[in-house]
Amino acid sequence: MLTINPVRSRPVLTSLERLIGPQRSDRLRKAAAEIQDRLRGGTLWHVNSTPTGGGVAEMLRTLLPLYDELGVRSRWAVVSGDDAFFRITKRLGVALYGSDGDGGPLGPAEREAYLHALAPAADRLVEHVDRRDVVILHDHQTAGMAPLLADRVASVHWRCHVGVDEPTDASERGWEFLAELLDAADSLIFSVADHVPARLRHRPVRIQPPFISPFDAKNVDLPADAVRACLAQCGLDPNGEPARSPLSVETAAGGVRLLSTPTVISDGGRQLGEPLITQVSRWDRLKDMAGVLTAVTDHVPVGHLALVGPDPEAIADDVEQGFWYADCLDRWRKLPPAQRRRVSLVSLPMADQTENALLVNAIQRASDVVVQKSLAEGFGLTVAEAMWKSRVVVGSAVGGIRAQITDGVDGYLLTDPADLRGLGRIITTTLSGAVDRQEIGVRAHRRVRDDFLPDREVTTTASMLAPERMVTR
């Protein structure tokens, strides 16, 4: 099935131009004009597999209103499926990250079931497109639509937000599953150059990092009282103030009313004066929340750890969230009481995206260290989000995290994601006062401003749609 996802228009262009300055603003407007010229009155479509949760959905909620202000006609379609479809796509996604996942097959039967599930979505999209349109398909959940759309629109492009730094048997099986389907795409777009598999390097390929929106609820500046109120809502306020629901919070983007209450697992909560260490991510094996829990409780002598993720039942295209959340919960329960008190598991409601984003924003802003200890990572927008807030980020040296952090300059990289003692040592050193966290935070913010804001997406898309400027690897 397929749903045309409505996007509420939010004026951001003036604020973005003020932030990026006149030269980048001029390039942005010229790029939008190039896209309009290439479309010849048609529509730029983005297709993914979920309207909420994850970096793709968050980017599209910013990108489409920006295109609207720039005069580019764009629309967003969301593919849905049953548990069997998402079980296959989860297995496929984990394979592309280099892991065996549930150990299930990715053979002809699975590909037939995958394509059978996508066919109605492609048929529905065909009802809405015409031959002037350009379609960008996001990730493995949508790749099978490329051959079904290729003869119906001006061009089809497939964008990959996942990958592994070094190929494995599992990743090769994943690419074997997809490669033939991608022959129908006019170009391929990867977030990280190292993630382009050898079998696709003869194709037209572009490297296009994702971006954050500095103006949405997840990244907008927050006054100190708003941060404290949100921390109380999540059980992380060291002053012990009780959470209030409903809660009205004023931000630079306007007022937000919090009607939902996060699920917080805690045993006493954060104490006054206790530094806050945070990882915000899905409950997913590759994000290794359990590894962060062990690293902090075994190897960091001070600080309160908040493991923050979405309600594990709320992400339709990830059927394993509940399992990995339960794994973290079980490990937390088995900790000695003194260590259990130092950890909070926070599951954020997903019914209201603004509410969810505001809580993430406040938690990151209140954190002394933000961790992203992924075992594999496509890009990792939570890294850029925390860097934008001038936080010190400690991330694994994998995938797109390496593309964002310069070790020791605007954050810290953990060379081996399995090195829990090493992670503990970096966090402990950072909290000890041995490094200038403020200066690192300033450089982190500047890096995101320079490289990971929405104007970069528009200018690189314009380049992609100009055939004479296509880059072939």
In words, what does this structure look like?
The chain has 473 residues and is α/β, with parallel strands linked by helices. Helices cover 42% and strands 16% of the residues. It has helices at residues 13-39, 55-70, 83-96, 108-126, 146-149, 169-182, 224-233, 289-299, 321-333, 337-340, 353-366, 381-388, 399-404, 420-431, 437-451, 454-464; strands at residues 2-4, 44-48, 74-79, 134-138, 155-160, 187-190, 205-207, 247-251, 254-258, 263-265, 276-280, 304-310, 343-348, 369-372, 393-396, 412-414. The strands form three sheets. A seven-stranded mixed β-sheet has the order 1-3-2-4-5-6-7. A seven-stranded mixed β-sheet has the order 10-13-12-11-14-15-16, with helices on both faces. A two-stranded antiparallel ribbon has the order 8-9. Helix 8 crosses helix 14 (420-431). The longest helix is centred in the first third of the chain and has 27 residues, at 13-39. The radius of gyration is 22 Å and the shape is globular. The relative contact order is 0.13.
Which tags fit this structure?
seven-stranded mixed sheet, 473 residues, alpha/beta, 16 helices, globular, disordered C terminus
